[in-house]
Amino acid sequence: MTIKLYACLGSGNCFKAWLALQQINKPFDFQLIDVLAGEQKSPAYLAVNPMGVVPYMVTADGIGIGESNAMLWYLGEETSLMPDTKEERATALKWMFFEQSKLEPFISPARFFTTIVPEMKAEQAEKIAQWQESAKPGLSFLNEHLKRYEFMLSSGYSLADISVFGYTHVIDEAGLPFADYPAIARWKSAVEATAGFKPLSQMVPHGEAVAA
Ligand SMILES: N[C@@H](CCC(=O)N[C@@H](CS)C(=O)NCC(=O)O)C(=O)O
Asked: Residue 39 pLDDT more than 50?
């Protein structure tokens, strides 16, 4: 069996696992789950992932793993993406929790209603403004960090970069200009120049459809 990734298009969380698979050059099956059509709540998909969200990954041994950052950790084992020392691994985890608590919860919905379903932008305008404000402290903190470090960890490119990159590289699509965060913009280009990097726009399915 090969690894199977269940994902929807355009999602920063799904992109993280997909990008790691590209960069470690691991073959995998891609199963598209159409979140906009509600396919993540279909009986067929709930039988795979009872949480009813994407991304979801099933390992070659048939073990299901939820949470994008847990997938990164699994995929990073025994590759150059995993930091070498326990201090660096703890620091990577710190940034991955930071990503899920200070960045993703605000950038993701602001971007969703601004760019993915722009027809809902006007009716969500107040909430979008709140999400944008809530994202700013985390982005400022990250920008300060990246003034001093080329990548998230002093040891170099790692799964912590992929985690933070997932949504931070599309902040402009959430109405948060890169011009306000020049060190983040510099880091974005550095990540895009790493070996095997492929952009979110190239994340396309190559699996069979899940029956509704
Ligand atoms: N913390 C989770 C977030 C998973 C998540 O909320 N996924 C979204 C797409 S990015 C989803 O499936 N939304 C549809 C729903 O909640 O029904 C992760 O990092 O994987």
From this structure: yes
From 31, 32, 39, 54, mutation site for ligand 1 pocket: most ligand atoms within 8 A of C-beta: 54
How many A from CA of 146 to the centre of ligand 1?
27
Name the residue at shortest CA distance from atom 3 of ligand 1.
67
CATH 1.10.10.60 assigned to domain 3-80+198-202? The reply is no
Nearest atom, ligand 1, residue 69 CA = 19
Q: What is the CATH number of domain 86-192?
A: 1.20.1050.10
Note the pLDDT tens digit of each residue in 45-104.
999 999 999 999 999 999 999 999 999 999 999 999 999 999 999 999 999 999 999 999
What's the gap in Å between 12 CA and the centre of ligand 1?
A: 10
State which of 15, 49, 53 you would mutate to test the pocket of ligand 1, scoring each by most atoms of that ligand within 8 A of its C-beta.
53
Q: Pick the atom of ligand 1 nearest to 8's CA.
A: 9
Decide: 49 in ligand 1 pocket, CB within 6 A: no
Burial bucket for residue 7 (CB in 10 Å: 0-12, 13-18, 19+): buried
- Give me the percent of the chain exceeding a pLDDT of 90: 95
Are 127 and 113 within 8 A, CB to CB? yes
Q: Where are the domains of the chain?
A: 3-80+198-202, 86-192
Give dist(CA 163, CA 104) in Å, integer: 10
- Name the nearest CA neighbour of 19 among 186, 196, 172: 196
